[in-house]
Specification:
Number of strands: 7
Bound molecules: adenosine monophosphate
Distance between the termini: 21 Å
Number of helices: 8
Radius of gyration: 17 Å
Oligomer: single chain
Shape: globular
Length: 220
């Protein structure tokens, strides 16, 4: 899904329901930027412009993360793959390394596209506020916190993500249309894409996503 489609929100719910880690490449990159790691230093300016970080940097980061033990039972990738090259890399990684013969057979990922129209996305992105302490996401237009700019859950101050500013948002939506939309086509051609209408209420989207995942359990 595009930036603002609700990937983070839905991914957190999936992670909680199935007891698997949520792996958000955006969050991992932001952590690296905050800690000024080598990767963070390389990614910072690209992210600030709303462009995509290079495939090789992101794939290496995902590879390290997927090799951690908590991924053995499964995982939800959020914001990855974002280019056809990343999708090809992921297929090869899963095929040759992750689901090897010593494990309980191969497993093809379920791919979910959350579809939302452009104007709705702009409102979502410009209204988004994030709690840095717990990652909870609000929207001043649709899901405002009880008290302005303060997290309902822990009272932390809410922040606007650096790349949720209007000029950067346009760049991110362009990157989505040009580089990530073809990923949906890649999976669609393989008959692996499940699209949900992300403009529906958030709980309805969650129900549809769960239904799709559970209809694939054991057959994926
Ligand atoms: P997100 O939080 O998913 O919107 O990601 C924020 C920013 O991180 C993006 O605008 C990109 O600059 C970078 N990013 C996140 N995931 C990827 C990815 N899979 N490939 C390249 N860049 C990414």
């Amino acid at each position: 899904g595009s930036p603002g489609a609700g990937k983070g929100t839905q991914a957190k719910r999936i992670a909680a329901r199935y007891g698997i880690p949520q792996i958000s490449t955006g969050d991992l990159l932001r952590e690296n930027v905050q800690r000024s790691t080598e990767l963070g230093v390389q990614a910072r300016d690209v992210m600030a412009r709303g462009e995509l970080v290079s495939d090789s940097l992101v794939c290496d980061m995902v590879k390290d993360r997927l090799r951690q033990q908590d991924c053995e039972r499964g995982f939800i990738l959020d914001g990855f793959p974002r280019t056809p090259a990343q999708a090809g890399w992921l297929d090869a990684f899963l095929e040759h390394e992750f689901f090897d013969k010593s494990r309980a057979g191969k497993c093809r990922p379920i791919v979910i596209l959350i579809d939302v129209d452009y104007n709705q996305l702009l409102l979502r992105l410009t209204g988004r506020r994030t709690c840095l302490a717990n990652g909870h996401i609000y929207n001043v237009h649709f899901q405002p916190p009880r008290e302005d700019e303060v997290c309902d859950l822990d009272g932390s101050k809410l922040v606007i993500r650096n790349d949720d500013r209007e000029e950067v948002i346009r760049e991110r939506l362009t990157a989505y249309e040009q580089q990530t939309r073809p990923v949906a086509e890649y999976y669609h051609h393989q008959g692996r894409l499940f699209a949900v209408n992300g403009s529906l209420p958030v709980d309805t989207v969650t129900d549809e996503v769960f239904r799709e995942i559970e209809s694939h359990v054991g057959t994926a």
